[in-house]
Amino acid sequence: MKTAWVLITRVVSGMLVVLCALAVPVASLGSDKPKPRSQIVDSGSFGVFVKGQRVVTETFSVQQENGASTVASQLKETTGTSPSSQKSELQMTASGELIRYEWSETSPVSGSLTVTPKDEFLIEKITASPTAKPAEQPFLMPNTSVILDNNFFVLREVLAWRYLATNCVSEGGAFRCKKESSEYGVLVPQDRTSIRVRMELVGREKVTIRGAERELMRLNLSGEGFTWALWVDEKDQFKLMRVLIADDNTEVVRD
Protein backbone atom coordinates (compact mmCIF):
# COMPACT_ATOMS: atom_id res chain seq x y z
CA MET A 1 0.00 0.00 0.00
CA LYS A 2 1.35 3.36 -0.91
CA THR A 3 0.34 6.76 -2.08
CA ALA A 4 1.23 10.33 -2.73
CA TRP A 5 0.10 13.76 -3.82
CA VAL A 6 1.71 17.14 -4.21
CA LEU A 7 1.85 20.96 -4.03
CA ILE A 8 4.93 22.78 -2.73
CA THR A 9 4.12 25.58 -0.32
CA ARG A 10 6.87 26.66 2.01
CA VAL A 11 6.29 27.28 5.68
CA VAL A 12 9.39 28.70 7.34
CA SER A 13 10.21 28.21 11.01
CA GLY A 14 13.77 29.44 11.50
CA MET A 15 15.75 27.51 8.89
CA LEU A 16 12.92 24.98 8.47
CA VAL A 17 11.35 24.61 5.05
CA VAL A 18 8.17 22.56 5.03
CA LEU A 19 7.29 20.82 1.79
CA CYS A 20 3.57 21.18 1.48
CA ALA A 21 3.56 20.29 -2.18
CA LEU A 22 5.89 19.03 -4.80
CA ALA A 23 5.02 21.22 -7.74
CA VAL A 24 6.84 24.35 -8.89
CA PRO A 25 4.64 27.45 -9.13
CA VAL A 26 3.75 28.52 -12.64
CA ALA A 27 6.08 31.25 -13.87
CA SER A 28 4.70 34.78 -14.03
CA LEU A 29 3.46 35.91 -17.40
CA GLY A 30 5.70 38.31 -19.26
CA SER A 31 7.04 39.28 -22.63
CA ASP A 32 9.92 36.81 -22.37
CA LYS A 33 9.35 33.08 -22.59
CA PRO A 34 9.77 31.59 -19.08
CA LYS A 35 12.76 29.34 -18.63
CA PRO A 36 12.23 25.75 -17.45
CA ARG A 37 12.49 25.42 -13.68
CA SER A 38 13.68 22.19 -12.16
CA GLN A 39 14.32 21.30 -8.54
CA ILE A 40 15.24 18.08 -6.76
CA VAL A 41 13.06 18.04 -3.66
CA ASP A 42 14.55 14.84 -2.25
CA SER A 43 16.74 11.98 -3.40
CA GLY A 44 18.62 9.10 -1.83
CA SER A 45 17.97 5.52 -0.84
CA PHE A 46 16.23 3.43 1.79
CA GLY A 47 17.46 0.14 3.15
CA VAL A 48 14.73 -2.41 3.89
CA PHE A 49 15.61 -4.81 6.72
CA VAL A 50 13.70 -7.95 7.72
CA LYS A 51 14.72 -9.38 11.09
CA GLY A 52 17.85 -7.23 10.90
CA GLN A 53 18.96 -8.43 7.45
CA ARG A 54 18.98 -6.04 4.50
CA VAL A 55 16.80 -7.52 1.76
CA VAL A 56 15.94 -4.57 -0.53
CA THR A 57 17.42 -1.20 -1.46
CA GLU A 58 15.11 1.52 -2.78
CA THR A 59 16.74 4.35 -4.73
CA PHE A 60 14.44 7.34 -5.28
CA SER A 61 14.11 10.94 -6.35
CA VAL A 62 11.38 13.57 -6.06
CA GLN A 63 11.65 16.29 -8.69
CA GLN A 64 9.52 19.25 -9.68
CA GLU A 65 9.72 20.94 -13.05
CA ASN A 66 7.51 23.35 -15.01
CA GLY A 67 4.51 23.00 -12.74
CA ALA A 68 4.59 19.21 -12.44
CA SER A 69 6.16 16.71 -10.06
CA THR A 70 7.79 13.33 -10.68
CA VAL A 71 8.40 10.73 -7.97
CA ALA A 72 10.68 7.99 -9.30
CA SER A 73 11.89 4.88 -7.50
CA GLN A 74 13.79 1.67 -8.19
CA LEU A 75 13.90 -1.44 -6.01
CA LYS A 76 16.67 -4.03 -6.06
CA GLU A 77 16.76 -7.12 -3.90
CA THR A 78 20.04 -7.77 -2.12
CA THR A 79 19.39 -11.44 -1.35
CA GLY A 80 18.33 -14.55 -3.25
CA THR A 81 19.68 -16.47 -6.21
CA SER A 82 17.65 -14.46 -8.75
CA PRO A 83 16.99 -11.05 -7.20
CA SER A 84 14.14 -9.02 -8.67
CA SER A 85 14.20 -5.43 -9.86
CA GLN A 86 11.21 -3.09 -9.94
CA LYS A 87 10.74 0.56 -10.77
CA SER A 88 7.92 3.08 -10.58
CA GLU A 89 7.23 6.66 -11.63
CA LEU A 90 4.41 8.90 -10.40
CA GLN A 91 3.64 12.14 -12.28
CA MET A 92 1.32 14.83 -10.90
CA THR A 93 0.19 18.35 -11.75
CA ALA A 94 0.79 21.44 -9.61
CA SER A 95 -2.66 21.01 -8.05
CA GLY A 96 -1.98 17.40 -7.03
CA GLU A 97 -3.88 15.70 -9.85
CA LEU A 98 -2.59 12.42 -11.21
CA ILE A 99 -1.07 12.57 -14.69
CA ARG A 100 0.27 9.04 -14.88
CA TYR A 101 1.63 6.23 -12.73
CA GLU A 102 3.85 3.49 -14.14
CA TRP A 103 5.26 0.32 -12.60
CA SER A 104 7.40 -2.41 -14.16
CA GLU A 105 9.39 -5.46 -13.13
CA THR A 106 12.29 -6.72 -15.22
CA SER A 107 13.38 -9.79 -13.29
CA PRO A 108 12.83 -12.62 -12.55
CA VAL A 109 9.67 -12.07 -14.64
CA SER A 110 8.66 -9.14 -16.82
CA GLY A 111 5.43 -7.22 -16.32
CA SER A 112 4.12 -3.67 -16.20
CA LEU A 113 1.11 -1.51 -15.45
CA THR A 114 -0.05 2.07 -15.88
CA VAL A 115 -2.69 4.18 -14.15
CA THR A 116 -4.19 7.25 -15.82
CA PRO A 117 -7.27 9.38 -15.07
CA LYS A 118 -10.31 9.40 -17.35
CA ASP A 119 -13.43 11.36 -16.46
CA GLU A 120 -14.32 10.27 -12.88
CA PHE A 121 -12.28 7.08 -13.07
CA LEU A 122 -8.71 5.92 -12.66
CA ILE A 123 -7.96 3.42 -15.41
CA GLU A 124 -5.39 0.72 -14.67
CA LYS A 125 -3.88 -1.23 -17.55
CA ILE A 126 -1.94 -4.37 -16.66
CA THR A 127 0.47 -6.19 -18.97
CA ALA A 128 1.49 -9.58 -17.58
CA SER A 129 4.31 -10.09 -20.11
CA PRO A 130 5.82 -8.24 -23.09
CA THR A 131 3.73 -10.33 -25.51
CA ALA A 132 0.46 -10.29 -23.52
CA LYS A 133 -2.51 -8.11 -24.34
CA PRO A 134 -3.11 -5.48 -21.62
CA ALA A 135 -6.05 -6.01 -19.27
CA GLU A 136 -7.97 -2.96 -18.15
CA GLN A 137 -9.61 -2.24 -14.79
CA PRO A 138 -11.47 0.99 -13.88
CA PHE A 139 -11.72 2.46 -10.38
CA LEU A 140 -14.35 5.05 -9.52
CA MET A 141 -11.92 7.41 -7.79
CA PRO A 142 -10.98 11.10 -8.29
CA ASN A 143 -7.67 12.01 -9.92
CA THR A 144 -6.47 13.46 -6.58
CA SER A 145 -6.52 10.00 -4.97
CA VAL A 146 -3.34 8.73 -3.34
CA ILE A 147 -1.16 6.15 -5.09
CA LEU A 148 0.46 3.90 -2.48
CA ASP A 149 1.89 0.99 -4.40
CA ASN A 150 3.53 -1.99 -2.77
CA ASN A 151 7.13 -1.70 -1.58
CA PHE A 152 7.78 1.93 -2.59
CA PHE A 153 8.44 3.85 0.62
CA VAL A 154 9.05 7.21 -1.05
CA LEU A 155 5.32 7.26 -1.80
CA ARG A 156 4.72 7.10 1.96
CA GLU A 157 7.03 10.09 2.38
CA VAL A 158 4.96 12.14 -0.05
CA LEU A 159 1.76 11.16 1.77
CA ALA A 160 3.36 12.33 5.03
CA TRP A 161 4.12 15.69 3.38
CA ARG A 162 0.52 15.97 2.22
CA TYR A 163 -0.74 15.27 5.74
CA LEU A 164 1.65 17.77 7.35
CA ALA A 165 0.77 20.46 4.81
CA THR A 166 -2.88 20.14 5.84
CA ASN A 167 -2.41 19.83 9.60
CA CYS A 168 0.57 22.06 10.42
CA VAL A 169 1.09 25.83 10.45
CA SER A 170 3.83 28.28 11.40
CA GLU A 171 2.78 30.52 14.29
CA GLY A 172 5.07 33.22 15.63
CA GLY A 173 8.16 31.46 14.36
CA ALA A 174 7.11 28.12 15.87
CA PHE A 175 5.95 25.15 13.86
CA ARG A 176 2.74 23.66 15.27
CA CYS A 177 0.77 20.61 14.17
CA LYS A 178 -2.69 19.44 15.16
CA LYS A 179 -2.83 15.90 16.51
CA GLU A 180 -5.74 14.98 14.31
CA SER A 181 -6.06 12.04 11.97
CA SER A 182 -6.82 12.37 8.26
CA GLU A 183 -8.27 9.71 5.98
CA TYR A 184 -7.30 9.16 2.36
CA GLY A 185 -8.67 7.10 -0.49
CA VAL A 186 -5.79 5.05 -1.87
CA LEU A 187 -5.16 2.99 -4.99
CA VAL A 188 -2.72 0.09 -4.70
CA PRO A 189 -1.98 -0.68 -8.36
CA GLN A 190 -0.04 -3.94 -7.93
CA ASP A 191 -2.88 -5.34 -5.83
CA ARG A 192 -5.51 -3.92 -8.22
CA THR A 193 -7.49 -2.63 -5.28
CA SER A 194 -8.58 0.55 -3.53
CA ILE A 195 -8.47 1.05 0.24
CA ARG A 196 -8.77 3.76 2.85
CA VAL A 197 -5.89 4.68 5.11
CA ARG A 198 -5.53 6.97 8.11
CA MET A 199 -2.56 9.09 9.12
CA GLU A 200 -2.11 10.82 12.45
CA LEU A 201 0.60 12.69 14.31
CA VAL A 202 1.95 11.01 17.45
CA GLY A 203 4.62 13.58 18.39
CA ARG A 204 8.36 13.84 18.85
CA GLU A 205 10.28 10.75 19.89
CA LYS A 206 13.90 9.80 20.39
CA VAL A 207 14.89 6.96 18.07
CA THR A 208 18.21 5.29 17.27
CA ILE A 209 19.26 5.26 13.62
CA ARG A 210 22.57 3.67 12.60
CA GLY A 211 23.75 3.81 16.20
CA ALA A 212 22.95 7.48 16.79
CA GLU A 213 20.03 8.78 18.84
CA ARG A 214 17.89 11.41 17.16
CA GLU A 215 14.69 13.27 18.00
CA LEU A 216 12.22 12.89 15.15
CA MET A 217 8.54 13.46 14.51
CA ARG A 218 6.46 10.29 14.51
CA LEU A 219 3.40 9.64 12.37
CA ASN A 220 1.21 6.54 12.34
CA LEU A 221 -0.14 5.20 9.06
CA SER A 222 -2.90 2.63 9.48
CA GLY A 223 -5.62 0.78 7.61
CA GLU A 224 -7.55 -2.43 7.80
CA GLY A 225 -5.19 -4.97 9.32
CA PHE A 226 -2.00 -2.90 9.47
CA THR A 227 -0.27 -0.10 11.38
CA TRP A 228 3.05 1.45 10.38
CA ALA A 229 5.16 3.94 12.34
CA LEU A 230 6.92 6.64 10.29
CA TRP A 231 9.53 9.10 11.55
CA VAL A 232 10.34 12.32 9.68
CA ASP A 233 13.02 14.93 10.38
CA GLU A 234 11.44 18.35 10.92
CA LYS A 235 14.95 19.88 10.88
CA ASP A 236 15.58 18.58 7.36
CA GLN A 237 12.48 19.39 5.29
CA PHE A 238 10.48 16.58 6.92
CA LYS A 239 12.33 13.88 5.05
CA LEU A 240 11.33 10.32 5.89
CA MET A 241 14.07 8.76 8.01
CA ARG A 242 12.63 5.50 9.36
CA VAL A 243 9.63 3.20 9.01
CA LEU A 244 8.78 0.37 11.39
CA ILE A 245 6.36 -2.41 10.44
CA ALA A 246 6.38 -4.30 13.72
CA ASP A 247 3.99 -7.08 12.68
CA ASP A 248 6.34 -8.06 9.84
CA ASN A 249 9.65 -7.57 11.72
CA THR A 250 10.50 -5.02 9.04
CA GLU A 251 12.41 -1.75 9.38
CA VAL A 252 13.15 0.81 6.69
CA VAL A 253 16.02 3.27 7.24
CA ARG A 254 17.32 6.09 5.08
CA ASP A 255 20.93 5.44 4.03
- Our Rg estimate from Cα atoms comes to 18 Å
Q: Specify the biggest β-sheet.
A: 15 strands, mixed
Per DSSP, the total helix count is: 1
Number of domains: 1
Structural class: mainly beta
Tell me what portion of residues adopts beta-strand conformation.
over 45%
Task: State the separation between the terminal residues, measured CA to CA.
Answer: 22 Å
Approximate helicity band: under 10%
* Strand order in space, largest sheet: 10-9-8-7-6-5-4-3-19-18-17-16-15-14-11
Question: Any overview of this molecule?
Answer:
By secondary structure, the protein is mostly beta strands. It has one domain. The chain is built from one helix and 19 strands. The chain has one helix spanning 154-167, and strands spanning 10-13, 16-19, 38-50, 53-65, 68-77, 85-93, 98-107, 111-118, 121-127, 135-139, 146-147, 168-171, 174-177, 182-188, 193-209, 212-223, 226-233, 239-245, 250-254. It has a 15-stranded mixed sheet with strand order 10-9-8-7-6-5-4-3-19-18-17-16-15-14-11, with helices on one face. The protein has a two-stranded antiparallel sheet with strand order 1-2. Strand 8 (111-118) and strand 9 (121-127) form a beta hairpin. The two termini are 22 Å apart. The relative contact order is 0.18. Residues 1-31 have low confidence and may be disordered.
